[in-house]
Amino acid sequence: MKTYRILIDCHDEKGLVYKISKLFFEHNLNIEKNDEFVDKENNKFFMRSVVTGKIDKEALTKSLQEILPQGANVRVIIPRKKRIVLMATKESHALGDILMRHYDGELAADIVGVISNYDLLRPLVEKFGIAYYHVPHEGLERSEHEAKILEILESFGDIDYIVLAKYMRILTPGFVERYENRIINIHHSFLPAFIGANPYKQAYDRGVKIIGATAHFVNNNLDEGPIIAQDVIRVDHTYSWQKMRKAGRDVEKIVLARALQLALEDRIFVYANKTVLF
Amino acid sequence: MKTYRILIDCHDEKGLVYKISKLFFEHNLNIEKNDEFVDKENNKFFMRSVVTGKIDKEALTKSLQEILPQGANVRVIIPRKKRIVLMATKESHALGDILMRHYDGELAADIVGVISNYDLLRPLVEKFGIAYYHVPHEGLERSEHEAKILEILESFGDIDYIVLAKYMRILTPGFVERYENRIINIHHSFLPAFIGANPYKQAYDRGVKIIGATAHFVNNNLDEGPIIAQDVIRVDHTYSWQKMRKAGRDVEKIVLARALQLALEDRIFVYANKTVLF
Amino acid sequence: MKTYRILIDCHDEKGLVYKISKLFFEHNLNIEKNDEFVDKENNKFFMRSVVTGKIDKEALTKSLQEILPQGANVRVIIPRKKRIVLMATKESHALGDILMRHYDGELAADIVGVISNYDLLRPLVEKFGIAYYHVPHEGLERSEHEAKILEILESFGDIDYIVLAKYMRILTPGFVERYENRIINIHHSFLPAFIGANPYKQAYDRGVKIIGATAHFVNNNLDEGPIIAQDVIRVDHTYSWQKMRKAGRDVEKIVLARALQLALEDRIFVYANKTVLF
Amino acid sequence: MKTYRILIDCHDEKGLVYKISKLFFEHNLNIEKNDEFVDKENNKFFMRSVVTGKIDKEALTKSLQEILPQGANVRVIIPRKKRIVLMATKESHALGDILMRHYDGELAADIVGVISNYDLLRPLVEKFGIAYYHVPHEGLERSEHEAKILEILESFGDIDYIVLAKYMRILTPGFVERYENRIINIHHSFLPAFIGANPYKQAYDRGVKIIGATAHFVNNNLDEGPIIAQDVIRVDHTYSWQKMRKAGRDVEKIVLARALQLALEDRIFVYANKTVLF
Q1: CA distance, residue D90 to nearest chain A CA (Å)
Q2: Taking all residues of chain C, what is their mean pLDDT, rounded to a whole number?
Q3: CA B257 to chain centre
């Protein structure tokens, strides 16, 4: 008896739940959990099922594709630890939080390595016995710097997600496309407010009463990728932007961890630059 | 073409989704929305479907019962305005908020009448052209007082829900049983904290930093019925209990309205003194 | 014995608290509540005191100005009901909530009248015995329309605040300047995200997981005035923009009421396009 | 030029702010920040000032006591790193979060050591170069176990706070009295709901829609000490109590850190089993 996570998205049409659940029934699979959503505007059907039973993964995928509308995406996933790479710059709160959760066994993930453009976080990362790769960017073109990072990433073999735990450099389109919907970033504002540099300073200048953080997949428009998770905290006139930044750390790390958790549990669909979360 | 809300709860067993969706398919019903939940601890299956098509309500109910495990509860509901009765005492915020939402057309409900043990709220209620019934409790045994209320309720014919919008008297077991899971109360605390009288005073005395409100179905244990909705607001040492009470009004009215909305949209299952909300 | 609210803002300098509290002491005033804030970036001092005693308002103002740095703003306020005017367009939830709070006696305010560019809200407003002024905008230049509104406003005599309870037209610079920091607007987004038209549609298109509302004083840049209050609610992929708009009503009305309450209690300082709230 | 935090609480009487600010002025102290609160119910005055200048700490304390009502508490504090001891049992999330914040330099504290009744957390603690003391409780009377802990605590010399980062044993009255208002505990519920063992199981059984965490000073009534900080998260019917416990970890660690931060910055007054926080 195995457990499978089955993620389906396709054009909506009548009878999809029936056809899919019939197939599960015929293959003697038991549905543990089922979530469905129909986006009527785009006429799109999403379904995530957790089923138990005995069947070959490829066979199940093929059977599903036969009964689904053309162009259907089917992912049959046998839960396993995902392989993730962390990238960071100088700040340790988001990175440290993930290291600690990993140490706790809270994440279904192996951290393959940590890549940074500074050497500052090495002592922290190495405490946890995780490989640290310092790739300085000084004196390099952006593409040269990324080429070095890509070389390291490729040396890792297959990886599932790259987590930007306050990695403060912009990635090139080439890099982003290579890992489409697999790079998770934490932006330190309640997007789409305060895109770009120093959002806490922007928030302070605007005099907002609430600040936030946004975890999103990275695409090629700065801070405009599909949003996975957001949260906020209250501030008031006594907050300098430095105090906002300090207070914001807690919400940044919690929101990033929440998004990562959703990714590790295969709960995210991406479409139309948005996410469907089950 | 009609829309039906179909609510099913029964013992869980393999193939339920398949059997139900097959039946929908055979009756040419289109699933607009589907929510399922399996409570593994109690081996219980819950499903709420919104379907469109043409079929007799009784026929559909019967067909469903034939394919479901024994003891299954099946509700096939054709959406219509529910008939609700409001009960209140002296405070107007929760009552007024419902009257305003009703006036706005935000509620799929007809307010059949408002019953109060005081005459204080009459002018407000009558502004909105709604019948007001003053049933004084002074000098009456609890059972005598309730008998008068019941008489009024019966004169209304069928009613769906009784909403206690800060009705500050305890109902007897007989009354409660008569309207099982159909009386919605708003309690002015974050239950189960501060059961009973003057929860704001209790909260003040305890020095809490957050206060809340809880909407629940009424059962025969004071403030212990199934919880439908809760929310909270922050307070600090500058709050007297009177200021807490004032601040609490907003969360009370919002939470009660949210619970009522869930009930009017047939989104609530009750079991094991809890609610499943879809 | 009277109660005074004393609001002071001026350049910061050593000894201000001492000088002010000395003056209160010498005039035999008892401090009930005292809030202070120093904005170090702008070297600005803010203080709001609630004092009780017997002294002439003008005399106290003069005494304070004598001991404070040049250019100090001093407001000595004897608490009284403020005179407010509401403006609305078609939606009733924010307007209705204020009408209900006013009816409850929750607001230290007299509603002088309601002005709208439609006649739709008249029945609601007149239920509460409040004068309704329908000023259609069709076929009029913006300035002509506003001239009619101004005429009505002037007929009211002194007014303290104009509350835009979902008034969906942009005011001209001339109008705004006339009532500087006295026009409170509710914007149906978490500003500065989604400035302009249909923010719920914008929020839906962007795929945010949280939506909000912002109450602010109106200045001459659309949706860019000093923020008074903000709050948020969670949404998910199942929310159409229409459902967001519906859910957003509750946060809009609560945030607007909170901002109005702060204004009525003289708790707001405005400077550098921000607010200091005590 | 030094910075002092001055915390005063005493019976309220007319002219306190004047007398205190006069004394600051005469000693040439500049007020950087001032917070005051009068509890009218108990006729009690609280003030926390941050001042800069040059004066002897003892002299300032003495001067203040001379002008204040009898029985006044005066604390003149020169900000320094506090010396704290952490106690834990088996769970690492709250402990790890404090270790990480300490590593980040976010806490104005030296962690003198970590004491646990298990040896489980030793590898984590020693990664950060902090001394770990394993004091098994098996086979010992509670008093014997605590005697061993007290011996270790005494060996540390002066300590400011003991932080119970999920230390799952009840302390005896003798222990608690020794460190009155200096032991900070995190309780994994929104107190006073769910006092005692396994609050997540209790919350699950009650069917609440919100769970929380509470940081409080420990007194001799289980989970009834003065509350410092609380926060909540939403749950729904899909949460088993184990899932609640997992979700609750984030709010536990954040709330504990917030309370510790308040303590380290000398922002807490305790009276009447409550806290005043500036």
Answers
A1: 11
A2: 96
A3: 9
Strands (E), B226-267: 227-234
pLDDT of A17 strictly over 90: yes
The answer, yes or no, to whether residue A223 has pLDDT greater than 90, is no
Nearest CA in chain A to B13: A30
What is the band of D221 on the pLDDT scale with cuts at 50, 70, 90? confident
Residues 6+ away with beta carbon under 8 Å from D189: D195, D199, D200, D202, D203, D211, D212, D213, D214
Q: What are phi and psi of B263, to 5 degrees?
A: -65, -45
Q: CA-nearest residue of chain A to C237?
A: A276
Question: Is A96's CB within 8 Å of D106's CB?
Answer: no
Residue type, D184: I
In the prediction, which pLDDT does A86 show?
Answer: 98
Distance of alpha carbon B145 from its chain centroid, rounded?
23
Query: How far C15 CA lies from chain D's nearest CA (Å)?
Result: 6
Structure-token match 């003798």, residue found = D174
Do A231 and A187 touch, CB atoms closer than 8 A? no
User: From residue D174, how far is each of D150, D170, D218 by CA, in Å?
Assistant: 11, 12, 12
Q: What is the pTM of this model?
A: 0.97
d(CA B129, CA B123): 10
pLDDT for residue A220 is more than 90 = no
> What per-residue string of b and e applies to D133-167 under the rule 16 or more CB within 10 Å gives b?
bebebeeeeeeebbeebeeebeeeeebbbbbbbbb
Q: How confident is the prediction for chain B on average, in pLDDT?
A: 96
Q: Tell me the backbone φ, ψ of residue D141, rounded to 5 degrees.
A: -65, 155
**D contact residues 55-74, partner A, Cβ 8 Å cutoff:** none
**Residue B200: pLDDT band by 50, 70, 90 thresholds?**
very high
Query: Is residue B55 scored above 90 in pLDDT?
Result: no
pLDDT category of residue C80 using cuts at 50, 70 and 90: very high
Alpha-carbon distance A223 to nearest alpha carbon in chain C (angstroms): 11
The confidence score (pLDDT) of residue C141 equals 94
Question: Is D223 among the catalytic positions?
Answer: yes
DSSP state of D71: T
Q: What is the pLDDT of residues B151-162, one digit of tens each?
A: 999 999 999 999
What pLDDT is attached to residue D103? 97
Contact B10, B271 (CB under 8 A): no
Residue A96 in 3-state DSSP?
helix
Cβ contact (<8 Å) for A207 and C226? yes
Q: Assess: ipTM above 0.90.
A: yes
For A150, the token pair is 């890509």
Residue type, D86: L
Structural domains for chain B: 2-77 (3.30.70.260), 82-277 (3.40.50.170)
Residues of chain D positioned with their CB less than 8 A from the CB of A92: 100, 103-104
- pLDDT class of D249 with cuts at 50, 70, 90: very high
**Chains near B, with 3+ CB pairs < 8 A?**
A, C, D
The single residue of A9, A97, A160, A223 carrying the catalytic annotation is: A223
- Give yes or no for B127 touching C (CB within 8 A): yes
Contact of D226 with chain B, judged by CB distance below 8 Å, is answered with yes
Catalytic residue among B104, B223, B231, B266: B223
Each residue's pLDDT tens digit, A47-68: 999 999 998 999 999 999 999 9
C199 at interface of A, judged by CB pairs closer than 8 A: no
Q: Which of D97, D160, D223, D266 is the catalytic position? A: D223
Residues of B in contact with D192 (CB under 8 A): 193-194, 206, 208
Q: List C-alpha distances in Å: D17 to A217, C25, C203, C237, D45.
A: 54, 9, 49, 54, 10
Indicate yes or no: CB of D106 within 8 angstroms of CB of A257.
Answer: no
Chains that touch A (3 or more CB pairs under 8 A): B, C, D
